[in-house]
Amino acid sequence: MARYYPIMLDVSAMRCVVIGGGAVAERKTAALLEAGAAHVVVIAPEATEGLVRLGKEGKIRLERRRFAACDAAALGADLVIAASSDRALNRIAAAAAKRAGALVNVVDDAASGSFVTPAVVRRGELVIAVSASGASPALSARIARELKQRYGAEYERSASLLKRLRERLATAVPDRGERQRLLRLAAEEAPHHPDAELSMQAAVDEAEVDRAIDRWIERLRMSADKPSAPKACTAGKDKEADGRTTKMADSGHDGRTIVVGTRQSALALTQTGQVVEELRRLSEKHGFNYKFEIKKIVTKGDRILDVTLSKVGGKGLFVKEIEQALLDGEIDMAVHSMKDMPYQLPAGLTTGAVPKRIDPRDCLISNHGGGLAGLPRGAKVGTSSLRRSSQLKHARPDLRIEWIRGNIDSRIRKLETEGFDAIVLAAAGLTRMGWEDRISATIPEDICLPAVGQGALGIECRDNDREVLQLLALLNDKETELAVRAERAFLGALNGGCQVPIGAYAVLVGSDGTGAQLLELTGMVGTPDGMTILKDMRRGTDPEALGQELAESLRASGADRLLAEFGGGTDG
Length: 572
What we know:
Structural class: alpha/beta
CATH architecture of the domain at 15-117: 3-Layer(aba) Sandwich
CATH topology of the domain at 15-117: Rossmann fold
Shape: globular
Helix content: 25-40%
Largest sheet: 5 strands, parallel
Number of strands: 22
Mean pLDDT: 85
Oligomer: single chain
């Protein structure tokens, strides 16, 4: 493995070429644009909608053709990223780029390039980069997510404030040693400095900022000669009348610590960390004095891994223990994958927020590339979902569908170790883990309708915890909430368990004549063997009424018989 020298590049004047038109190429292109690249050419015969949009907006030059070995030199490239799905083409591009004297990154073969791109956390002018030297981009992404949780928006303000302080010290304090000592002290204080917000305001009184900086310099000088006192730390938990927990993180924090419950899988912890990061930002923005703590909880669904979910039986396999912790006051809110949440919540609990949904579709990770059509006849395909199995069998009766349990990373490993040609997972899970490059193809909804709530998160809390409800209201995405309510109403009207494949997906399609938002809801009920798939669509403005109407339509078309014959139910 090569040893890399860490460096930050100014790409604003560099001529950058990206080879490839898929999701990975789109992410690499977006990263270049975010870093200020003004001259980006993307070369690919086919391109994602996102790349096409960037081309139309004039942010990139999109050339719809195959890369030629002379392109790097002809375009005068300074930096080339080979991000196509064709490994041979990527190597050809890398060699051509090197001959042209360009820096080159090869996404699927780090050794063929001259640099690797790290996982990045940006907080204004503060940039934190993590690299595993090309050995494991997934590990880099995981560490970056942890850093993102650790270093919140306050560090963006810190960097801005410290920049102003450094500029001021250059003229106010001539002694270099004293400047360095004061800057070290300031770096400790900056994340929580009361004037940090002032330094970032667009319309700011420069004289006011300078006065605040001067006051800070004087205070730093006074404290520089004082011995530091040991920090006191207290830990304890009290339960209020409404069941909420108040946990003091340290003596410098006199507000509430909100305890957030989650499953202990890597995906659950990742998406919970992302939610907590956004809640921290919202809390600071709106002046709430909250800290956050994540608590891991093991559920029944996590413990039983040797049988399919449909055979385990019961509802709420991944939430019951977490809900009990909420009711007992051990946690204050819980982050769930919405598709894991049962339709009926326990008395005393409510869904406080449904954040903005990401890709709801299922996706294929394949050893053959491409989508379902690219799988050979009789291919062995792994899934843990009766819903996916039914629809895949219906679309491709020749496939050998086999059950595969475990968390998302262990299922991916089984693709290599247990002889699968492909596995099917939720695209949202891979996206949240930063593993979009693993996706061979997404499966269109008309082939495989998603599970109810797939791609969305549900934040559950006690229905009498006013503080948490107030905070979560800021996180809620109204469009996602309406869509998920319609899907869950459909599920509730079918009274599902886990023996019949059921899927649903709702989207907003505009408004009706009165200005109310119009929803389009598609639902399906099938047989486990995939021989029968009942599907229908309805439109309406009331999500609960729409879900009920669609369920009644499918019942009248034969879903009643399927529900009765197979015991009623759903499976994600």
